[in-house]
Fold each of these.
Amino acid sequence: MSSSTIQVTDSSELSAQTTSRLVLQMARRDIATLFRTPWIIISRSLAFIIQLFVFAYLISGLVISYPDYFRYYAVGAVVSTVASISFIIGYDIFEEAEEGLLDYLLTLPIPRREFIIGRALGGAVRAMIYTIPMFVIVAVLENFANPLSLIGAVLDLFLIAFGVTGLSITVAVSVRSANRFDVVLALLELAVTRASTALYPLNFLPAYVKVFAPFSPVTFAADSARAALTGLGLDVLGLVGLLAFVAIFLGLGATFYFRRLEGGVYA
Amino acid sequence: MIGFDKAGKRFGTLDAVKEFSMTIKDEEILGLLGPNGAGKTTLMLMMGTVYRPTSGKISVNGLDVVQHPNDVRKMIGIAFQDPRVDGILGAFDVLNWHLKMTTNLDKAERETRVEKVLKAVDLWEARNKRTWLMSGGMRKKVEDCKVLAQRPKIAVFDEPTAFLDVPSRLLMWKMIRELRDEGSTVIVATNMMDEAERLSDRVAIVNLGRLVAIDTPEQLKSKTKGGEVLELTLGDGQECPTDLLTQFSEVQDVTQESNKVTIYLSGGRLLLPKIVETLTNRGVKIDSVHLKEVTLEDVFLNYTGHRLE
Ligand SMILES: Nc1ncnc2c1ncn2[C@@H]1O[C@H](COP(=O)(O)OP(=O)(O)O)[C@@H](O)[C@H]1O
Ligand SMILES: [Mg+2]
């Protein structure tokens, strides 16, 4: 190859079709980072199993006032796990911003909106990869076998993961101070996952949580997944709530923050 | 062609770049020369769509950077001042991923290119070493290699040879020149005058966020008080009769600091014997004579009143 024929990169060559390829590459990159630390997956899965057996199995026997509490808890635990994991992407992006790696990523030829969507997709997929084994354990224990129910529940898991990554990224690109970012994201995670009906039915929640829990996206996802799996059918309200959550934090979030990032207001 | 039209960037109350206008020609190496904090990085990151200009306009091949950021990004490759590489990856993966994101090359073509450039900078053996375990110089080379392998239409290098040893610097200059010869427009920011002088086709001198002068190194130097500098060391306690020297039309300026006299002049070689004769006839004792070319350091001093460092 003679050196004069090497010159390649030209604006016309990176077409619209490549944009979607680049979005997928961004997503793949985020998925790959998860597997750099496989011990996290293993230890978290173990913790999940221990929690499920030692805590829920024993406790559920004591909870007589709520039938099938173990089933309720097990599905909710999977949903709240996928939501928690989905928050991690925000920390990744914040760290990249501090290291300056984000500046580099922002020079790559990806429109900002697609950049955010690619990363939310990557964050959601890796949260799913992480949670699916736990979901399988629960499905086996509880004999969830109806394919449609399973698909419905997986869809719920994916939507909550996608929406939460969007939320987490939105916070990461809008809060500049490291201390505030940690606090804001931790509080949000607590509010979104704990102030929900994922693990405890609404009537059993403390009064101050009861007010917010019906509006938590994790509530939507958990109730909707339980409805799908336990044969109660489609939880329309839950699904609509979930979709709205995703639309707000991915649609609006991406559009709003793409305006801020686009052309480089960042830093 | 790249145009800066009264471009400015304000961070809070600080004007990092102000009223900056210049044109960069296709397939030239433009050196941005200025001390730390002059605004070089800010200028390049505005062009690269990372920072949005707070005033004025910047266009890249006719495309406004604010209106068409993504089209601009497709043409540009930036090697950052501080390496921006994923520390957990090795050089090979860093470069391969960069090419994946910035070119349409297939896997085999990418790998060929990465191999070629890593071999050229002597990092092939260390291609799988995690970049966070590398020395500053090695990491800097990896950063430069991103753009050398990408071969973008517009290649930006921010202080490309900082932390590099002398042989690596010369090699990097050679590779940057090759990039230009193959059709890239190259912008190099530096605070080293020899780098600006030896690498650039034209040099833009930047100080306090403003463009001070832009021209070829030769023109900049020749516009500076004649183009040559005669340095005389006089015997102890000797005074230089300045007026006697400025009567020559070729002599532009004379300064004396203790027993060191600096004479800025044009056609110095021819005038040298006359100057020495004139001074000796006046009884001035000259210990040594040194005739040198004007450097960009002198140019910078001349325009800004202070030295580069
Ligand atoms: N992101 C930023 N926020 C605030 N100030 C900045 C930022 N980037 C650069 N500056 C300031 O702008 C000025 C120019 O910086 P820079 O462009 O990095 O100069 P150079 O590259 O010539 O050393 C400096 O005073 C620097 O402190
Ligand atoms: Mg700089």
Note: The CA atoms of residues 186 and 306 of chain B lie 28 Å apart.
Amino acid sequence: MSDENDHKLEAKSDYVADAPSVSTPDIDAVPEAELPDQELYHSHSWWTTYVFSQDAKYIGIQYALTAIGTGLLGLVLSWLMRIQLAFPGLGWLEPSSYYQFVTMHGMIMVVYLLTALFLGGFGNLLIPLMCGARDMAFPYVNMLSYWAFVVAVLVLLASFFVPGGPTGAGWTLYPPQAITAGTPGYNGGIILMLISLILFVAGFTMGGLNYIITVLQLRARGMTLMRMPLTIWGIFTATVLAMFAFPALLVGCLMMTLDSLLGTSFFMPAMVSLGETLTHEGGSPILFQHLFWFFGHPEVYIVALPAFGIVSDLLSVHSRKTIFGYRMMVWAIVGIGALSFFVWAHHMYVSGMNPWFGFFFATTTLIIAVPTAIKVYNWILTLWRGNIQLSLPMLFSLGFIVTFLNGGLTGLFLGNVTVDVPLSDTYFVVAHFHMVMGIAPILVIFGAIYHWYPLITGRMMDETLGKIHFWITFLGSYAIYFPMHYQGFVGVPRRYFEIYDSPYIDTSTLLLNKFITIAVLIVGAAQLLFLYNLFASARLGKKSEKNPWKANSLEWQTPQMPPEHGNWGKELPKVYRWPYDFSVPGAKEDYIPQNQPPSEIIGAKVEKT
Amino acid sequence: MSDSSLDNLPKGWKSVPNDLGSDQTAFKGVQWGKAMMWIFLLSDTFIFSCFLISYMKGRGSTVVDWPNTSHVFSLDFMGVPVPLLLIAIMTFVLITSSGTMALAVKYGYEKNRKMCGHLILATAIGGLIFVGMQAFEWSKLIHEGVRPWSNPFGAGQFGSYFFMITGFHGTHVSIGVIFLFIFARKVYRGDFDTGRRGFFTTMKSDYVSIEILGLYWHFVDLVWVFIFAFFYLW
Ligand code: HEM
Ligand SMILES: [Cu+2]
């Protein structure tokens, strides 16, 4: 490929007034293409265009809509549970339904909403665009990944309709009770749940291979790893974590399926149930806990890391400032990812393990707080003296920082064995993980949707509705989860279906429960506003100009917006810098897109990246 | 590139992230499919590790003694029980098939269609023999009363882990055999020379796919070595 034509410098160098009149074409040189241009799959029918689409952008939207739809079910379940908690004795829910709803709510939110939305949704949408590729490496398998996810969701939903209903074992699915009489759905719902998870893992693996390889092997010319937006770093690292954490879940699920269907005893000790001795004998329930949490802890970072990455980019774009400490941010993401495989047993402090074991895991858990804290400092320093625009993505990003900080601090409490033992299985834990893994990433998701909506639809979402949505969601979440910290301190246990007046429960708890439930319903209503905004703006929203946020990263630099099949038209972009050159002294504009050649910005004092 | 710019590159350990993070591709000259297979195999390694670690934990915490494996796995040969006989043959066949696979890759890159096809076919047959012998061993054990939930020789977990892990591995081998047959056909038909498009993927065929399949096959063999050691020698 020849680059000669791209270097018509004379015409462009009047960008900066005092530009030197001669410059060698060399300054625009990027390394030769290492690969031939990617061949694209072209669909020929309606089915292969819109249903079995192989275009990563479509797959991303499909993933996102399916995940959001499933998440809505999770949301409704939470309302039902909260009404029960606020008005015990009303007989609103059967105990068994309550457990089933807790379980399905938890699993849906963690796996089928957050994981699928961040990696399947934003991953598919953004990885090829931000890396400057035409599509994922293996589009066919990428398409299969989405459909495996759909089947997994259908199997999960089917469990509502089998005799006995869905499983009520809690999202952690601990055996032996998950598959023993007395637990709702112990012989029907649980099987479907396990199968659904196995399908999810299989489907995710197909997608995850694509995300990893596209980032590693298919970047545009000039796009070194250290020039990638942090969004991609977050999604990429989270995908790597998922590839190594999901195997443990898969194995655990498979073994429990066999325990339940074939009567093996992997996890089942000898037990007496309903007065009868079960045939199981000699299995290890703790083994499941290890497998589950070897998956479960990395899983929380599978959700957190993409949120970290996305929020970094949102903060930088909407405060018109270079991200503070880019390299540190990258290493923190990678470091957190690596460390997250060595802390899993902090979820098992009360499982009766050896105190030395707990000591080891408390240490590793607290070490992980170091890179996490670095990230929080860097976000704040990014804002420092920035030109902060209080746009919707910025509001949600700010909301994320405080919420995440709050949840991270309670994590430090829980990471210490002696503090955790009394707090374990109380509402304090519920408050911790909802702050850090529920609200914080969800705020980022909202911010990201407001931010990238024009890229997908070509229109803006409504600002006023968005602001109402933000303030209700943000303040409402605090109204919901702040009191739960207190409830945990006074010892209210989690996963109880009815908390009523008793000598063991503080009366303030009962009042707070009513208060929380009201807040839940108001926040829930605000989400309907968001949904309306999401769907109505696609037709009614204000037409967006190209690159409405004046961002630097490649996804906004496509020849058409929304980008077309193949993303880049005839020629792939060439990258000359990182995506964080905002407000550069000497530059004409306050942003310099990644693909703007140096010859066009002569005089600007850009950092060398 | 002039020497001075080479001098500017980081040295020692620092050069590792620098090289990996360089322009466009992290693994230079590696076709994306090959890299993808490596990542998949890493992930699969975690699956088998979880299986084998669970097996160690399970075996360590049963209430009844573990069966005497050299007795359970012995095969009567002319009236004498020979421990490990069947399994030795199985392992030999599988390892040999790795050799034929490696040769197939070599002939593939040399565009020697005939030899490549024959060797892939030989590999597939090796795999089939392995699966067949495994089926024989399973049925022999089932005849002797070994079940996934119990067995007459000791702890019930023996059958549970044995059938689950060898079954999972056997599934890997079977999938490999199916792909080997498909690839043998593609080689004989000349798909890799003409760059014929895949039926499902619509991507152009390329001899590198044989190497990718080879990676998978060698991995399945390697895993077998571990399963062999953990179940039959312990
Ligand atoms: C400074 C960092 C963090 C520390 C030290 C920490 C520590 C802990 C500990 C010790 C527990 C167990 C509490 C118990 O069950 O008694 C826990 C629970 C939990 N954490 Fe964190 N955590 C941190 C960050 C996070 C992040 C970033 C997320 C998610 C994005 C997260 C999600 C969760 C979840 C979901 C649970 C509860 C699981 C359950 O029992 O159902 N944590 N955390
Ligand atoms: Cu954890």
Note: The mean pLDDT of chain B is 90.
